[in-house]
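User: I've been trying to design a sequence by hand for this structure and keep getting stuck. Would you show me what you'd pick, starting by listing the structure so we're on the same page?

Assistant: Good idea, let's start from the same input. This is the structure you sent:
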């Protein structure tokens, strides 16, 4: 009886401090997958494929408002004092209802490959968090109609340089592949092409190949940016785990929340000429993209050592130019 009483009190306490909330489309009641939830203090989280996220009042005592955003919808701000179990967001009236005509290119084509650039040095890797997004530009081959058939993302799974255990750490991480228009040589608004999610584990190849031919990604005349974003760890069934995205660390300045880093790591390279990689932190700086250089972070060990590009590879289908 005492055990049941204890469990009842524990569950009641947990419910009072943590809550699962679902984001839905106000016009049709459908779940809004992978919406961004900002806590207004430079931190936040991502909803899962069913539009659900978890908010903990115990973990975020200093947060009194949430800000919900998703492409094609008006932003929504809401106080955390009395959170409903569902949040409805309105389709944006500023965005015309547009249908992306993913035209399948036909005719003769040749295959071209952009070779991914990989290495296994832990110290020259980007440590992904849910607040970071990395983008690399792809252009048409010799100006001809070009379709992206597949993408190759180099990863690092081993951490033998910093761990003496010699064991491959197990993980199952969902990433999202997104596409952005090009404006002034930088990533601009999200492309109308759909995004794609994919689960990477410790059993994945060192270069993860993701087939996207069914998306019919035809590179525009001025190019397109391909971006990768970590969404979080998953269950064995491939569902996002509603775990906290921050660790609490005691420092001389008090208790600090530090973004959780996820595996796999992303190897940055010094073997690509020029500055071709852009990054952004989705809960900082008004979500602005920045070229990954010293202006982004003067203290970055990656930038200072010249490892300032992420070498995404691709298989392209290049069609004969129309006369």
């Amino acid at each position: 009886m005492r055990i049941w009483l204890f469990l009842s009190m524990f569950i009641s306490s947990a419910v009072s401090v943590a809550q699962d909330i679902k984001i839905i489309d106000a016009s049709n009641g459908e779940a809004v997958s992978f919406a961004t939830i900002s806590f207004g203090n430079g931190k936040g989280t991502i909803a899962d494929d069913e539009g659900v996220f978890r908010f903990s009042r115990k973990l975020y005592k200093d947060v009194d408002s949430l800000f919900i955003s998703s492409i094609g919808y008006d932003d929504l701000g809401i106080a955390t004092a009395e959170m409903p179990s569902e949040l409805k967001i309105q389709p944006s009236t500023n965005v015309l209802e547009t249908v992306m005509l993913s035209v399948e290119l036909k005719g003769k084509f040749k295959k071209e490959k952009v070779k991914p650039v990989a290495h296994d040095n832990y110290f020259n890797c980007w440590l992904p968090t849910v607040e970071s997004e990395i983008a690399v530009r792809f252009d048409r081959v010799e100006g001809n109609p070009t379709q992206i058939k597949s993408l190759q993302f180099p990863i690092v799974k081993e951490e033998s340089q910093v761990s003496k255990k010699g064991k491959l750490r197990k993980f199952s991480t969902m990433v999202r592949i997104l596409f952005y228009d090009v404006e002034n040589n930088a990533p601009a608004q999200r492309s109308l092409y759909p995004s794609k999610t994919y689960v990477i584990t410790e059993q994945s190849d060192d270069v993860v190949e993701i087939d996207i031919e069914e998306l019919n990604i035809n590179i525009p005349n001025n190019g397109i940016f391909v971006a990768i974003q970590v969404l979080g760890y998953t269950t064995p069934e491939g569902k996002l785990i509603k775990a906290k995205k921050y660790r609490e660390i005691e420092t001389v300045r008090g208790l600090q929340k530090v973004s959780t880093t996820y595996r796999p790591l992303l190897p940055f390279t010094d073997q690509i000429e020029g500055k071709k990689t852009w990054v952004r932190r989705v809960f900082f700086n008004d979500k602005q993209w920045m070229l990954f250089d010293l202006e982004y972070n003067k203290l970055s060990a990656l930038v200072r050592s010249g490892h300032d590009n992420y070498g995404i590879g691709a298989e392209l289908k290049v069609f004969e130019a129309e006369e």
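That's my pick for every position. To get oriented when you compare it with your attempt: The first strand starts at residue 18 and ends at 25. The longest helix spans residues 2-17.
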